[in-house]
Amino acid sequence: MSDILPDTALDQLFRQARSYNAFSGEVSEETLRKLYDLLKLGPTEANCCPARIVFVTSDAGKKKLEPALSEGNRAKTMAAPAVAIVGYDMKFYDKLPVLFPHVDAKSWFEGSPEERLYRVALRSSSLQVAYLILAARALGLDAGPMSGFDNDKVDEAFFKGTSIKSNVIINLGKGDPSSLFPRSPRLGFDEAARIE
Question: Which residues form the Nitroreductase domain (predicted)?
Answer without folding.
Answer: 26-158
